[in-house]
Amino acid sequence: MARYGSSSSSQVSSLSSKDKHDYYQLLHDFKELHDEANIIVVIDNRLKGLNNRIENKVNHLETELTDLTIDLENLDMIYNNSTYCNENQLILKPCEKQI
């Protein structure tokens, strides 16, 4: 097996120059990729925060909807169990018969 240093000096210098170029190109590309990945992480964190706020708002609105639905059902029950003795009076017990 031939050792790397056993080549002629012109071959070593050209290989070493090409290797250096390849190394610096890879390093540059890696740094660009790393910078883009960091930007994506920041955007991802912002979107996760926004998603959490929206989920909390949805949960709050669902709770409010449930509460309002119960209130509506209670009002419907009160309305259905009430009678009108005259146009302006709503009472919760049966009207006395007027003679």
3D architecture notes:
- 0% of the residues are buried.
- The radius of gyration is 40 Å and the shape is rod-shaped.
- The longest helix is centred in the middle third of the chain and has 72 residues, at 9-80.
- It contains one helix and two strands.
- With 99 residues, it is mostly helical.
- It starts with 8 loop residues before the first helix and ends in an 8-residue tail after the last strand.
- The model is unreliable at 7-12 (pLDDT under 50).
- A two-stranded antiparallel ribbon has the order 1-2.
- The chain has one domain.
Main traits of this protein?
single chain, 1 helix, 99 residues
Short synopsis of the structure:
This protein is mainly alpha-helical and 99 residues long. It contains one helix and two strands, in the order H-E-E. It has one domain.
End-to-end Cα distance, whole Å, is: 124 Å
SSE pattern, N- to C-terminal: HEE
Widest beta sheet: strand line-up: 1-2
Based on CA inertia axes, which overall geometry fits?
rod-shaped
Helix segment tally: 1
Map the helices and strands.
Elements: H1 9-80, E1 83-86, E2 89-91
Antiparallel strand pairs: 1-2
